[in-house]
Design a protein that fits this description.
- With about 400 residues, this protein is of the alpha/beta class.
- It folds into three domains: about 5-120 and about 245-315, FAD/NAD(P)-binding domain; about 130-240, FAD/NAD(P)-binding domain; about 335-410, FAD/NAD-linked reductase, C-terminal dimerisation domain (Enolase-like, domain 1, 2-Layer Sandwich), CATH 3.30.390.
- The protein is about 25% helix and about 30% strand.
- The chain has twelve helices and 25 strands.
- The chain has a five-stranded parallel beta sheet with strand order 3-2-1-7-19. It has a five-stranded parallel beta sheet with strand order 9-16-10-11-12, with helices on one face. Strands 21-22-25-24-23 form a five-stranded antiparallel beta sheet, sandwiched between helices.
- It is globular and about 60 Å long.
- The structure holds flavin-adenine dinucleotide.
- Flavin-adenine dinucleotide binds near residues 18, 20, 22 and 45.
Length: about 400
């Protein structure tokens, strides 16, 4: 049977490389769709777990390792999903083989790259010091948690979603936090300038020291770090956490000759340039049927959805329709959500609640909603998502008026 014939064959064996949310979501959905073939997930970290709590509840000690598992051993056994602890060193799409770092060779009809991303290091002198912390894995969170204590002077470099969340959690745990970012305010592309300003101002209101600048070097002397900014400012810190984004883990795809451009290129079915290999989650980047290369999503829901899409494609089921992309983030006791795109041509409409910007709507030049972000406004974002997905024409005055029920507007 050729690789192409295996799509829709419910007995085909599938090897999922990477057991994060995307790989797990694919496995769960395959079984839900009645796939009966052998299903294995290989990951150096063992059982699949969820990452968002690593900068929130897990870091704060409100939940533990068991509390962040996406599936426990019992679930895996009941659903006949084998979890192999190991690292894949190479894949061979023509034969369906995957070589593990320990020399074991696995074979499957179909391979799925669900390898996620790696926290980006700072490309400056000292950026690669072992004492400079990052936050991508449970081990990273454990190390950070063990470092944090009341009075610790923690410098967080990067005030994007993860940097801001970690800074907030560290403050809650009693650390003295210095938050450094080259941009003031950060996150404008995600939530628009008005909400970005309000969110960034919260850091200083909660007692964090906020610095705008570009780190140029990091040195360490007798356990104390010195961060020098490119304008000459010097900042001392007991510990440093860097949150400046991720790079997609594409090495396996590159070595196997698959098409890669900032992520493993996939089509609307999450199929790569080889008919035996799918890619999902943070590692994948979609090219739409009309040739548009989309931005790589690095959000929880996207990881889940791409796994579900690949499962449907493998099982020969109808592809799910997902709608506008959505994310959330929590910091300083507020909940942030965003949907669609806040960039691109058009205008922004702000809805104020209690005199402060609470919801930002991005309208395209034709008057359709393209994006929405909100602080403590999950219901508004849900309504906005319906308006985006259904292309409801909206009146800017109604969007801005806090008395207008957005749910009704979305109908
Ligand atoms: C601290 C933190 C907080 C976050 N908070 C939010 C949030 O609030 N909201 C939101 O929308 N998103 C959030 N995200 C993003 C979200 O968690 C990710 O988008 C999601 O985890 C991506 O899932 P994934 O399966 O593609 O990748 P990952 O979760 O990174 O999983 C990839 C897996 O592949 C494995 N792997 C890599 N290479 C190999 C190999 N060669 N062989 C075998 N296995 C391999 C890795 O060990 C890893 O387990 C957060 C992420 C982090 C790190």
């Amino acid at each position: 049977m050729s690789a192409a014939d295996m799509q829709g064959a419910s007995g085909s064996s599938v090897l999922v490389i990477g057991g994060g949310l995307a790989g797990f979501s694919l496995a769960r959905q395959l079984r839900a769709l009645g796939h009966t073939g052998r299903l294995r997930i290989v990951d150096p970290e063992g059982l699949p777990y969820d990452r968002p709590p690593l900068s929130k509840a897990y870091l704060l000690g409100h939940t533990d390792q068991a509390g962040i598992l996406l599936a426990d051993a019992d679930w895996c056994e009941r659903h006949d999903v084998e979890i192999l602890t190991g690292t894949v060193a190479a894949i061979h799409p023509e034969t369906g083989e995957a070589d593990l770092a320990d020399g074991t060779v696995l074979e499957a009809d179909l391979l799925v790259l669900a390898t996620g991303g790696t926290a980006r290091r700072l490309a400056i002198p000292g950026g690669d010091l072992d004492t400079v912390l990052e936050l991508r894995t449970r081990a990273d969170a454990d190390r950070l948690r063990a470092t944090l204590r009341p009075g610790l002077r923690l410098a967080v470099i990067g005030a994007g979603l993860i940097g801001a969340e970690t800074a907030s959690a560290a403050r809650e745990l009693g650390a003295d936090v210095i938050l450094i970012d080259p941009v003031d305010p950060p996150l404008v592309p995600a939530v628009g300038p008005e909400l970005a300003r309000r969110l960034h101002d919260m850091h200083a209101e909660r007692g964090l020291e906020v610095v705008t600048g570009v780190p140029a070097s990091i040195t360490i002397d007798a356990g104390a770090h010195l961060i020098t900014l490119d304008d000459g400012q010097a900042i001392t810190a007991d510990a440093i956490l860097v949150g400046v984004g991720i790079t997609a883990n594409t090495a396996l795809a590159v070595d196997a000759g698959l098409e890669v451009d900032g992520g493993v290129i996939v089509d609307d079915r999450q199929l790569t340039s080889h008919p035996r290999v799918y890619a999902v989650g943070d590692a994948a980047r979609r090219r739409t049927a009309d040739g548009v290369l989309q931005r790589r999503a690095e959000h929880w829901e996207s990881a889940m959805n791409t796994g579900r899409t690949a499962a449907a494609a493998i099982a020969g089921a109808e592809l799910p329709v997902h709608g506008a992309s959505w994310f959330w983030s929590d910091r300083h006791g507020v909940h942030v959500e965003g949907v669609g795109s806040m960039t691109g041509p058009g205008t922004t409409v702000i809805r104020e609640i209690d005199g402060v910007p609470a919801i930002a709507f991005r309208l395209d030049p034709d008057g359709y909603l393209a994006g929405c972000a909100a602080i403590d406004g999950g219901l508004a974002v849900r309504a906005a998502r319906r308006m985006i997905d259904r292309r409801v024409h909206v009146d800017p005055a109604q969007l801005a008026d806090p008395a207008v029920n957005l749910k009704k507007l979305a109908r």
